[in-house]
Each structure stands twice: as C-alpha cells, then as structure tokens.
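Let's sit down with a protein and look at its sequence and fold side by side. Go ahead whenever you are ready, and we will take it from there.
>
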Amino acid sequence: MEVGIASYGHTKYGVLEEDTPDLIKKVMDDCMNNVENGISPEEIDRIIISCVDNAFSEQHQTGTLGWEYLGNPDAFGFKVESACVSGSVAVYRGKKMIESGEAENVLVVGFEKMNKFSTDKVTEFLTHGSSPEERKYGVTQPGAYALLINLYAQKYDVTEEDWAEISVKNHENALRNPWAHFHKEITKEGVMDSRIIADPIRLFHCSTVSDGAASLLLSANPQEYTDTPVYIRGMGVGHDYLSVADREDPTFLLCSKRAADQAYEQAGKSPEDVDVAEVHDAFTPVEPLCYEAVGFAEKGEGAKLVREGTVMFDGSLPINTSGGLKAKGHPVGATHVGTMVEMYLQLRGEAGERQVPDPETALIEGHGGTGSVAVVSVLGR
C-alpha cells in the first residue's frame, strides 16, 4: 500500500498573534477545507500533533485539543516529539498506522509558539534535545553544531564563503515564499561580517525563532479526495549518539544516511532520481553535510554543489526552495510538516514563484539533536 497526501494547511511563519489553540485549529480547518473532493470529520480516524516543548505551547494534551476541534468522537489524537524532526516523525507514525490498517485517514498537525519567550530562554529550552552531558557543561545547540562544523572544516575543503553563499541562497528562495519569516535579501559580505554566535557559526548562519503551524491529510485512498495526490514512496528513520563527542565520525550525519538508505530502498529510487529537496539547515554550515548524508555528494565534497550552482534555485538540484529553516523559519514542531507541504506543492506544480520545472521525485532530510535522530522521506507523483 502506498500512502498519499491529499491536502494541507499552512500558516505564515514569524512572530504571530495567534496562540497555540488558534494555530492548531487554523491549520486543521485549512487542511479540511482544502480537500478538493470534500471530506467529513467522520472520515478522519487519527490526529497526530507534533510539538517539541510544552513550555513553548503552554498547553499539554494537544492531541485531545485537536480531537475536540475535529468533531469526530470516534477518532483519537496524540502528540509526538523528536526534537527538530518531530514533524516528520508524526508523518512517519501516521503512515505506519495507515499501512497497518489501523486507520484510513490521518490528520497530521505540527506547530510551535516560540516568540512568547526571550532568545536566551528559547535556547535553554532547545538544549533539552541535547545529551545530558552536553547540558551539564552548558553546550547549546549552536555550540554543538560549531563543534562538528569546526571538525569538518579542519578535515575537508570548505570555507566561510561557501557557508555564506548558502545563507544568501536560502534568503533569495524565501523571497518567493509568502509563508517565509524573512523576506530580506542578504549579501555574502553581510553574512561574513555578522557577529559570531559560536565560532565559526555567525548570526546570519542561524535559523530564527518562529511561530507557525502546518498540516497534512494522509490517506490510504488519496485519489478519493484529490485528482493529483502525492505519494510517500519511502521513509526512513536513523539514529546516532546524542553527544557529538561520542560519535564515530562527528563530521558525517550517520543518522541521516541510515534514514536515507531506508527511504531510497523503499521507494526504489537513488539520489540521482531526486529533482528537488529540502534539507535541515538550522545552521547553514551544516547544509553540505546533509547533501553528503543523503548521497548528493561524496564525503567532504558537499560544498562543491554550492560552488558549481547545482543546489541553487535554477540549478539541476534546487535545495531549500522554501527558504529553508534559515529564512522560511523554524517553528520546531511545525518545521518538517511544512517541508512536506513544500514538496507536495512542488510535485503538484503549485509552488507559485518558487516552482521548479516539472519535478517527479522529491526528498526531505530532517535531523534533530545536532544529528542524533533523522527522518528522510522520498515523495513522488
């Protein structure tokens, strides 16, 4: 059985007035209303909510809240969490429920309400996704990424100019995306002159604190609800150690490779088949490592795809057409539901100004905990 996507909902990312209940209800309503051939609440069997930290949402029982908003007493809802990749884990769980016969239609909702808190407090909350040892010694998410990026830069050919080009690329892509948090051009020089956050990570390498929500309708029979469904051809999940220092090779995202290998095998595809992709650029210097983990480049050669223009919007493999986490935004629980919405629209030819020419196969790579857990998805028409 191939599970398909039949509808979606999506808010703008940014500093939003809507609170947690409003965000959840809005994208649920949008997803139901966007079903081209119509659907009733009674046809939804499960609701899966992705939210990383209840401290952000100030709301436990978000699964039950979603159930209330749906209006089908025979459905049930629950929340999942897996750091930055929580949204893809929610989709993965929904897909498995459909494949097992437990459900026919699953509504997946990802959200995060982060801007009620200061940047320092958000940073503190996000360290909850790190290892106990890293937290004990005050290692933040930027600090852990800086460790692996420094090691990578010592080992392979990559420069500050490469990292800056990625930030510029993703901001240019976000200009085409009405949902993006940032609609602002930046320059390579501006990136390289921005202040250091955790050496070598600079301010303009970092994704921002965003509010937002996104949703998807997964179905065993998506053709009942839309004439142009998109199918989840393959999904894989992989892990590595929580602490960067414990990994056999901190310069390689082994979790993402493990997940990608599974996804390609299930889909009967290879990296060469991919036409468009979204990868996890929470800090843009990690983007070349994502390319390598999913097989777009050999180890240590990810930056070549930037220099050669391969991953630019008009390149042969456009990556992060949405603007990526860097410029579209990173409302953590919503992030990888939103990336799947992006690929859904690309494959249907409905991505507007950011549409790439006639893609048939799309890939999403997401990882959390600085590379301790990953989900990779391969989508097709």
